[in-house]
Amino acid sequence: MNNTTPHPITGLSAIADRYSVVLCDVWGVVHNGVVSWPAARDALARFRAGGGTVILVTNAPRPHYAVRPQLAALGVEPECFDTVVTSGDVTRDLLAAHPGAKAFHLGAERDLGLYDGLDLSLAAAEEADLISCTGLFDDTVETPDDYQALLERFRARNVPMICANPDRVVERGHQLIYCAGALAERYRELGGSALIAGKPHRPIYEAALARAAEAGAGAVPLDRVLAIGDGAPTDLRGAVDFGLDVLFVTAGIHSADFGPADDPDRDAVHRFLAAERLGATAFIPRLAW
To answer: What is the pLDDT along the chain (289 residues), one digit of tens a residue?
Structure first.
């Protein structure tokens, strides 16, 4: 059960027998965009070996079939998970509700596969009647400030935005980079309409549980499902609002709030959760068995 004063654990094995399904965040828990962590991979593989089902739930703005090769390249073995559900999967459903749209792709070229098979055309900013935001054009150097003028022009025409990644920042290696969620937030501040897919919103959790059922878990009671994540506004908020227990990985994007990454201060973790009006069942510096 979640509360604002969760206890620390050294490994998933301490609580694994309470759960049949794990919904695990990817970036910040399994990898950091540069390398994956053997201990996290081992924990998920052991949970599955014990009869559990693991669904990787990511706010990646690409469909699940495009994310799998990235996971493989980072060394995340198929034994670690049953399947993947992405924000891109949910976004495709939202885009499909706008047949014939002229969409401006706001994001990197690597995300263009999001539109495969959809009834829409990509258009220049001046001609678009829809913004499909998957991130920044170059997240290695840009910030939301670089998009102020463009977003103001869209706002002047009341062009709606569909945001494929609610994350505002993620850690790539040791660098924090901005994501699509930061642009959606900026657009809303300007008075624009931004519909956001992925965590913390319900559709991605519903899709994840449906995939878990298809993978053999069947209809699992929510109290037998554990969400693992590091991001308060996305992973924790989404899981808590959906009614799931949470294992909070503290050495992720909020690590600086808790002292040494591998030895987080318990009181600092509790203060953070109370301030965010969130809870967790337990916390762990990094996912391990």
So the answer is: 888 999 999 999 999 999 999 999 999 999 998 999 999 999 999 999 999 999 999 988 889 999 999 999 999 999 999 999 999 998 998 999 999 999 999 999 999 999 999 999 999 999 999 999 999 999 999 999 999 999 999 999 999 999 998 888 887 777 888 999 999 999 999 999 998 889 999 989 999 999 999 999 889 999 999 999 999 999 999 999 999 999 999 999 999 999 999 999 999 999 999 999 999 999 999 999 9
Most distant CA atoms of the chain, gap in Å: 55
Does 190 share its domain with 229? no
With contact defined as beta carbons under 8 Å apart, do 161 and 191 qualify? no
CA distance 211 to 236: 20
Tell me the pTM.
Answer: 0.85
CATH number for position 32: 3.40.50.1000
- Contact status, residue 12 vs residue 288, Cβ threshold 8 Å: yes
* Residues 221 and 231 reside in one and the same domain: yes
Gap between the Cα atoms of 235 and 233, Å rounded: 6
Q: Pull the structure tokens for residue 42.
A: 């081992």
Phi, psi (deg, nearest 5) at residue 248: -90, 120
Residue 179: which domain range? Answer: 90-196
User: CB of 162 within 8 A of CB of 120?
Assistant: no
Q: Both ends of the chain: CA-CA distance in Å?
A: 20
